[in-house]
Amino acid sequence: MTIPPTADDTGWRLQRPTIDAGLALEEALLESICQGESRFGLVAWSPTDRALVMPRRHERVAGFPEARRALSERGWPIRFRATGGTPVPQSPAVVNVALALRCQVGSSAAHLEWGYHRLGDPWCAWLAALGVRDVDLGSAPGAYCDGRFNVRIGGRKLVGTAQRWRRVRGSRDMAMLAHGAMQVGDTPEALVAVVNAYQAAIGDPQRFAAGSHVALSQELPDLDPEAALPGLLERLVG
Amino acid sequence: MTTDIRVPEDLWEGDTEGVITAWLVDDGAEVAQGDLVAEVMVEKAQYEIEAPISGRLGIAKPEDEVVAKGTVIATVDA
User: Which residue among B13, B44, B50 sits closest to A85, beta carbon to beta carbon?
Assistant: First the structure.
């Protein structure tokens, strides 16, 4: 299997595939570790289209077919992903970074907490280097797809994180894919509205708060995210 | 010979419980060693669970069941 192109002579670069192709890039990255072809991989992509992306188990939710139809009519088709969590919007306003590693089971580097820090700590350091203050990892109550290891600015969710673990073929080692989705543009209100529309469509009373999210453009309005991204990817190489 | 399929004990710290998000093989189906049979989610992390030996799979815990580390979720009869 070919390892997804993540670097060229000019260094790390952002890819712009469709959402389906971007998710396939991540799957290929994880599979390259599982096949023993590599021990480390990194890919960064921002989609050209938009969709509400969720784990496939959500397909079993009562009212899902109607919700899928309603979201599609709003211009937000539903797609499925392989990592855990709950629905998140993907659009050109989101930059995804996926890090894949081979981990030895039983070592300190084989825990989900380690994986989240391996992805999130360099992310926080990159933001701090750009001049962003009050950056850390933690939960953001009221945010959609909340977890304990979001990258936060002032307690608001900038990057949602998730993982997938798979056994390396013919080995006790595990392959870990850690994924982060960072809102770089648009407004939190616009993306939260999509998730809340899905919640309403499936009859779930829970609603999410735009105030629990932040977009990078709100903190750094003059930043070109694509130009700054290599700094993040170099930190993630470690 | 019956072999248990357990939620791994060494992949996350603490006592956090997980959820069986998918059975990828039907109860009673024949599986081969190494086949992917289930997925368990813990803290937004999906773990893939494989068949430890070849044989007939018996599911002990259904989808959406909350499970602790070390829980027997299925057996395989060789």
Answer: B44
